[in-house]
């Protein structure tokens, strides 16, 4: 493992700010220099969360920049492209062709997919820590309608299973691209080959799956990003517990923000209750939530970090909370990892300690689980997750992800959400 000189909290905080400053292009922050040169949706929500305690305007600008890419049907895209080097990442705007779509913004280039709806949680954090309360209220009044539209899009266009959960229609939408949870639904797709150039690190997913990612994106694009095509024909549709657990937590956040926006909180509380019921009904098995493959009509057996997503819900019944925490602390996950929390069950045959979402530990999922532990009154676990995550970045730097056994860094360097959430953990 790379040795780094010992850094105290103050020095670590300064390093985190300098990574975020260097990755900032205008009002948006890119996830990592070179590798991801545009604004990514959930990455920016973590950046906003991380800077919110110190700089309301910067946190707000991050969200507003992302939301400038929101489509008229409410969809918040997973990438807002930086026009100066639009094709520096594959697939770029010439693949997505958002500018040809009537619902996409005319002046901002975006992808056609979405990502976990962390946005209301991020706005809530900005609102909570803003010192200037008038400014905070004005911000909530401005952003709330956009987020209500985002939630409406998920509830109407993405309820492909008809039971109240939002379906992802591409692995990229999960934020956990190469998670073993998507192996089976991806292997049911035709084997395809495309010619393209992509900046890759050795830890990246197997090529065969990446070609299927491209194929899925092109099919959806060629349907005209059509909702009824998704419902009837699109070959990848999965109810993911992390995506839906985040959506549920964001419903609670919108309910808390609604009065500041002069709106009624009840529809968001009702939405949260519906999502909870559907999660319990459709995705729970053996002490964990599992993704449901709507096309294969079955639960995906592999246990991954995504299965803990519903823990973010303060209203989750106590027996399920206990079951989830037992699984989390067992040797399947935290119990056998030196540096929690592995993104896939350590005992699973698909577990791979160094390949992205197939094993490594991530700062953002650690942060989410720490928040869940706080929600469910587990201060010991809050401390443990916070300390372990800070140990990772202190030792290996703000890497994209980390080997869960020895803590060595994996993927990109100077990674924005690792830096931003470190600031929050240090607070
Ligand atoms: C990774 O995903 C992108 C596609 O969206 C990629 O593999 O090129 C994921 O880790 C995702 O969660 C993240 O938002 C993105 C940018 O950091 O990178």
Explained architecture:
The chain has helices at 9-22, 41-51, 56-67, 93-96, 119-129, 133-157, 171-174, 183-187, 207-222, 227-232, 241-257, 266-282, 318-329, 363-375, 379-396, 416-426; strands at residues 24-25, 28-29, 39-40, 79-80, 167-168, 238-239, 284-285, 288-289, 292-293, 298-299, 401-402, 409-410. With 427 residues, the chain is mostly helical. The chain has a single domain (52-353), classed as Alpha/alpha barrel (Glycosyltransferase), CATH 1.50.10. The strands form five sheets. The protein has a four-stranded antiparallel sheet. A two-stranded antiparallel sheet has the order 1-2. The chain starts with 8 loop residues before the first helix and ends with a helix. 52% of the residues are buried. The model has no long low-confidence stretch (mean pLDDT 96). Residues 31, 36, 40, 42-43, 78, 172, 175, 177 line the site of (2R)-3-hydroxy-2-(alpha-D-mannopyranosyloxy)propanoic acid.
């Amino acid at each position: 493992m790379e040795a780094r000189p010992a850094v105290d909290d103050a020095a670590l905080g300064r390093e985190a700010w300098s990574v975020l400053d260097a990755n900032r292009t205008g009002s948006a922050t890119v996830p990592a220099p070179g590798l991801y040169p545009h604004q990514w949706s959930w990455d920016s929500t973590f950046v906003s969360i991380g800077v919110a305690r110190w700089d309301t305007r910067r946190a707000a600008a991050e969200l507003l920049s992302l939301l400038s890419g929101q489509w008229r049907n409410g969809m918040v895209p997973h990438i807002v492209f930086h026009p100066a080097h639009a094709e520096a990442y594959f697939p770029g705007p010439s693949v997505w062709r958002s500018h040809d779509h009537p619902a996409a913004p005319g002046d901002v280039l975006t992808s056609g997919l979405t990502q976990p709806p962390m946005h209301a949680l991020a706005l809530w954090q900005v609102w909570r820590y803003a010192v200037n309360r008038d400014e905070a209220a004005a911000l909530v009044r401005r952003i709330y309608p956009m987020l209500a539209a985002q939630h409406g899009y998920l509830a109407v266009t993405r309820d492909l299973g008809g039971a109240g959960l939002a379906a992802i229609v591409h692995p990229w939408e999960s934020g956990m691209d190469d998670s073993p949870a998507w192996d089976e639904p991806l292997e049911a797709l035709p084997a395809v080959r495309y010619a393209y150039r992509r900046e890759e690190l050795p830890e990246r997913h197997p090529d065969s799956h990446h070609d299927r990612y491209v194929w899925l994106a092109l099919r959806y694009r060629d349907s005209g990003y059509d909702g009824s095509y998704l419902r009837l024909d699109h070959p990848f549709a999965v109810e993911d517990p992390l995506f839906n657990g985040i959506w549920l937590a964001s419903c609670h956040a919108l309910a808390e923000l609604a009065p500041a926006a002069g709106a009624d909180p009840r529809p968001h509380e009702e939405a949260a209750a519906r999502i909870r019921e559907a999660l319990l009904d459709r995705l729970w098995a053996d002490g964990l939530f599992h993704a449901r493959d709507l096309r294969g009509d079955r639960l995906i057996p592999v246990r991954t970090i995504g299965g803990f997503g519903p823990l973010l819900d303060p209203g989750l019944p106590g027996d399920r909370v206990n079951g989830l925490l037992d699984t989390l602390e067992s040797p399947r996950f935290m119990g056998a990892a030196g540096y929690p929390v592995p993104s896939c069950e350590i005992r699973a045959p698909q577990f791979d300690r160094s390949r992205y979402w197939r094993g490594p530990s991530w700062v953002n999922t650690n942060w989410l689980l720490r928040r869940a532990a706080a929600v469910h009154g587990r201060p010991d676990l809050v401390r443990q997750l916070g300390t372990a995550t800070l140990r990772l970045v202190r030792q290996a730097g703000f890497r994209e992800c980390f080997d869960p056994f020895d803590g060595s860094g994996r993927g990109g360097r100077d990674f924005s959400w690792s830096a931003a959430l470190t600031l929050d953990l240090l607070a």
